[in-house]
């Protein structure tokens, strides 16, 4: 067991509040102040950009940060992904983008969306995961039932397969279950935290491993206990690069002032338990490229490195007080991207921000505000389309076209154009059918508009 010990003038300081105050702010923070809505998740497709999903004006947007600026792309509601995305964005091994919604799971291949419905009409999507065989697992809950009803499905080779029967074999007599977390290791095993409702043993939370055929239960050192003296719950789970399993659990006695949170590590042969000096259920857990563990707990960002917990919150960092952590991810440069309630997005690296993903400014389009009075016809387009625009002064002009992932698929530097009305003919013959958007730039100004290509 490991505790954080901070030496004060009169010996070790053990108060959690005092401990937070004694952690000094560290360099390497970047706060994005113009985020109009907090991201729900982050994904890094190429090491040079970050994609994230967010809701703006009751519509779901795909945000992209690259080349030192942010852009927001609307229109997901027209591509099968509806308002209410709560699950991670995932890129699979074939570079397909997966996203979840209140109506189902969407797969985008760069041109078209394919959707897979949820198990039940009243279900709530709780999470998604990519396994070692490139299959998508997702789990839901039906919260309108007398007791929660969970469901697990796997999407493989274009088919959605129910795994509810498999999961109900975990505990004999189990009537209902729900998933509190799931991850996969390099050997293809599925690790899952399960809340079970058993007619004989009541409600419990346990950790299981599924090898594709049989289940293994892990009960030590965190055997789930429900009694008059204590209550233990498993909260979050992830894996590291060395195939290690990390699990958090909360010890909640009848007297809550003595509760605690623990971090567990399994190296394939034995478990180690690390005791923290804070209390509460961890909502998100990840590991970075150096196998340091990062967690979100309320309005706290927590790092676990070499047996030591470091807690960051509003008392020692730019993290806001107005909302809890929503999303967390580590990019290829070990920068930790986080989203918080109150429309905050913060990036942190204890060693200083690294790589090409750090912004000095944020640019957004206000619902396609246009300084050029531009018009594109025809739209939808087949072989070509024409962009009409007007300039207030002579300016260098460029036109770019992006697909629905925000990837640039066409660019034309037009050089200097005269003030007044101008026209440019753009060939779309090499573009697959799908929804795009074009960006017209003239000097420091730009406008963005949708473009549809059909065949």
- The percent of residues in helical segments reads under 10%
Global geometry: globular
Number of helices: 2
- Give the integer mean of the pLDDT values: 76
Helix and strand content put the structural class at mainly beta
Low-confidence stretches: 1-26, 74-85, 223-229, 358-369
- Please list the strands of the largest sheet in the order they lie side by side: 3-30-29-28
Give me the count of strands: 37
Q: How is the biggest beta sheet arranged?
A: 4 strands, antiparallel
Q: Percent of residues in beta strands?
A: over 45%
Radius of gyration from the alpha-carbon trace, in angstroms: 25 Å
User: What is the distance, rounded to the nearest whole angstrom, between the alpha carbons of the first and last residues?
Assistant: 64 Å
Protein architecture, described:
This protein has about 450 residues and is mainly β. It contains two helices and 37 strands. Strand 8 (about 90) and strand 9 form a beta hairpin. The longest helix is centred in the first third of the chain and has 7 residues, at about 15-20.
């Amino acid at each position: 067991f490991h505790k954080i010990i901070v030496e004060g003038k009169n010996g070790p300081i053990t108060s959690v509040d005092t401990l937070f105050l004694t952690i000094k702010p560290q360099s390497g923070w970047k706060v994005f102040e113009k985020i109009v809505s907090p991201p729900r998740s982050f994904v890094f497709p190429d090491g040079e950009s970050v994609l994230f999903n967010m809701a703006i004006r009751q519509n779901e947007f795909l945000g992209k940060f690259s080349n030192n600026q942010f852009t927001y792309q609307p229109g997901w509601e027209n591509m099968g992904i509806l308002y209410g995305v709560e699950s991670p964005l995932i890129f699979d091994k074939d570079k397909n983008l997966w996203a979840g919604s209140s109506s189902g799971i969407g797969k985008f291949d760069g041109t078209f969306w394919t959707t897979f419905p949820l198990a039940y009409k009243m279900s709530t999507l709780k999470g998604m995961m990519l396994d070692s065989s490139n299959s998508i697992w997702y789990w839901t809950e039906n919260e309108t039932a007398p007791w929660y009803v969970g469901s697990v499905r796997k999407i493989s080779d274009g088919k959605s397969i129910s795994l509810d029967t498999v999961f109900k074999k975990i505990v004999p007599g189990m009537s209902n279950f729900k998933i509190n977390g799931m991850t996969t290791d390099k050997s293809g095993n599925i690790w899952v935290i399960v809340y079970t409702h058993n007619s004989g043993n009541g409600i419990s939370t346990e950790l299981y491993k599924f090898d594709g055929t049989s289940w293994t239960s892990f009960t030590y050192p965190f055997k789930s206990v429900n009694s008059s003296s204590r209550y233990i719950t498993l909260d979050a789970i992830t894996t590291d690069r060395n195939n290690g399993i990390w699990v958090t659990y909360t010890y909640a006695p009848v007297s809550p002032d003595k509760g605690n949170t623990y971090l567990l590590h399994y190296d394939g042969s034995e478990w180690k338990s690390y005791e923290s000096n804070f209390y509460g259920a961890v909502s998100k857990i990840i590991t970075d490229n150096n196998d340091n563990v990062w967690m979100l707990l309320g309005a706290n960002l927590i790092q676990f490195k070499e047996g030591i917990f470091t807690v960051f919150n509003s008392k020692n960092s730019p993290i806001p007080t107005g909302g809890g952590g929503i999303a967390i991810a580590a990019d290829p440069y070990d920068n930790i991207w986080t989203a918080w309630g109150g429309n905050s997005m913060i990036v942190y690296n204890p060693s200083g921000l690294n790589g090409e993903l750090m912004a000095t400014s944020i640019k957004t389009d206000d619902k396609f505000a246009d300084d050029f009075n531009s018009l594109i016809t025809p739209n939808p387009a087949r072989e070509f389309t024409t962009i009409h625009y007007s300039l207030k002064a002579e300016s260098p002009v460029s036109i770019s076209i992006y697909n629905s992932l925000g990837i640039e698929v066409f660019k034309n530097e037009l050089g200097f154009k005269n003030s007044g009305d101008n026209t440019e003919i753009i060939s779309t013959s090499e573009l697959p059918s799908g929804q795009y958007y074009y960006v017209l730039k003239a000097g420091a100004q730009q406008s963005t508009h949708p473009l549809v290509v059909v065949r």
